[in-house]
Amino acid sequence: MFELLRAGGWLMLPILLCSVVATAIVIERFWALRRQVVMPDNLVGQIWDLHRRRQLDDDRIAEIRDGSALGRMLAAGLVNRTHSREVMKEAIADTGRQVVAGLERYLNSLGTIASVTPLLGLLGTVLGMIDVFAVIMSAGVGDAALLAGGISKALLTTAAGLSVAIPALMFHRYFNNRVDKLIIAMEEQALRLIEVMKGEREDLQGGVP
């Protein structure tokens, strides 16, 4: 591996750095975007139970806010539960924009890596080919082994860049799709909470709407 890095030239270093950063982002996003962490099951039902039992005080709302991304959105609505439906909805929407920004954290960086690393690889190949032509000018084309070795070294950076960019692009699209689905699900839960708190949805099965 070290020999390949050295053979590819100095541009292999930023490509390697991009690889390390992309790997760290992928691992962090897999951990942060777990569904049970972002939106725990039946959170609206638990909130409704607390509301029915008159236990939905400031401490409980703070626990809900700190428990998950969905809880943060719902807590913004609960703080305004004595106000109109429109006020609750606006408060949830304002907090939701901040929550979405958190869910999309680092994804722009991952997309940038997916775009930049092939260009770094191509630049390395172009610089390598310039060196090959310099060898041809000085030594001629008689030594095929020397030319083949120079060309193979020139192509190493392109191969390395693509090896980083392809999985980075795949994970970037995967996480974007995952975030989109989570956002839709959280919006549905937020609307459900508003309907329940404003009496627009029937109480079902022991207080769980």
Helix/strand layout:
Layout: H1 2-8, H2 12-32, H3 35-38, H4 43-52, H5 58-67, H6 69-79, H7 85-103, H8 107-139, H9 144-197
Helix pairs in contact: 2-8, 2-9, 5-6, 6-7, 6-9, 7-9, 8-9
Structure report:
With 209 residues, this protein is an all-alpha fold. It has one domain (2-124, 159-197). The termini are far apart. It has nine helices and no strands. It has helices at residues 2-8, 12-32, 35-38, 43-52, 58-67, 69-79, 85-103, 107-139, 144-197. Helices cover 81% and strands 0% of the residues. 28% of the residues are buried. It is rod-shaped and about 90 Å long.
Structure summarized in a few sentences:
By secondary structure, this protein is an all-alpha fold. Helices cover 81% and strands 0% of the residues.
The profile of the biggest β sheet is: none
Average pLDDT, all residues: 85
Termini separation: 58 Å
Helical content (DSSP H or I, runs of 4+): over 70%
Radius of gyration: 27 Å
Oligomer: single chain
Q: Count of DSSP helices? A: 9
Order of helices and strands: HHHHHHHHH
Uncertain runs are 203-209
Number of domains: 1
Q: What general outline do the C-alpha atoms trace?
A: rod-shaped
Global structural class: mainly alpha
Strand content: under 5%
